Amino acid sequence: MNQTTAHRIDQDAKRFREIVRGHVRRNLRKYISNGELIGRQGKDLVSIPVPQIDLPRLRFGSKQQGGVGQGDGDVGDPLGPGDQSGSQGAGDQPGQHILEVEMSLEELAEILGDELELPRIEPKGKKNVEGGKVRYTGIRRTGPESLRSFKRTYRAALKRQIVTGTYDPQNPVVIPIRDDVRYRSWNIYPQPQNNAVIFYMMDVSGSMTQRKKELVRLTAFWIDTWLRANYKSLAVRYIVHDAAAKEVDQHTFYHLRESGGTRISSAYQLCKKIIHEEYDPAEWNMYAFHFSDGENFGGNDDKLCRELLTDSLIPPVNLFGYGQVPGGYGRMFMETIKSIEDEKLVGVKINNREAIFDAIKGFLGKGL
After folding, report:
1. Which domains does the chain have, with CATH numbers?
2. By the 8 A CB rule, do 240 and 204 touch?
3. What is the mean pLDDT of residues 134-154?
4. How far apart are the first and last CA of the chain?
């Protein structure tokens, strides 16, 4: 493959990536609401279904056929073969093409931030520096074979043969010797790794159906995507509650369903305990998100929740988000959230999948 061909391939690949990014931008609200990306998530990559994207290319036909615009025909005649009879049964023509392309979660987060106009996060904490970033900055004569620069090696060999008069333009053979071999060199630049932790709390009482938990799961995925793009080290803690609270793993968090009542303060007390015992607010960036259908056990627990939020949970965190999915009747917990005036506290309603887009902007667009 010559250099010109490689350059054209790189240009086509870059243009294709731009087309894909444009498609994702235009359809981001759809992807956020229907969970297509979550189902195709792999290690640091997301597989995205993109319809009808083809790079143009020439196709050569048979010599027996006429060229473009040749032959008999009238206005309106089809240009290619097709089923003219409209008969029932299996067709023989191609349908819409769906292409799955891979996009990194970092690219996805960048698109998310641009489209929702999310602010850039300024992490706190300075003590955590883990390793560094390797950058190739030059060429040297020694090094491992895995870092051999073939281009620089053959360039050095060509120069040597020209200087010594052994290069023959009629027979352009370049044979490197040991002194011609070049290797890439690198430097390591320290890279800060700010710590962050997310607390997800969710009501798992009998009124929280699987449909409501799916709204929570989709919302949490996009929260994770954005925060992981801003923090290199991210811990996630999961707390579930009905009348009592406990810490669980991710799978249990999204699938557990209890039959008891609801006491939101139990989750807030457990979250307060974990923060006090394990996370120094001066060194950790903390984000807490609580999801519920809004039903709580009486007015006294609402009062206790308000005290826990204002005195113990909101002060140490970067952001506390409350997401209320469709729920019961009467006084909803959202009224307690709205009674607290603090820029780090955000309450949003997630009534259906279409509301997730606006909920993400409501959560992450402020208080970071």
Report:
1. 1-55+98-117 (no CATH), 130-190 (no CATH), 195-364 (3.40.50.410)
2. yes
3. 82
4. 49
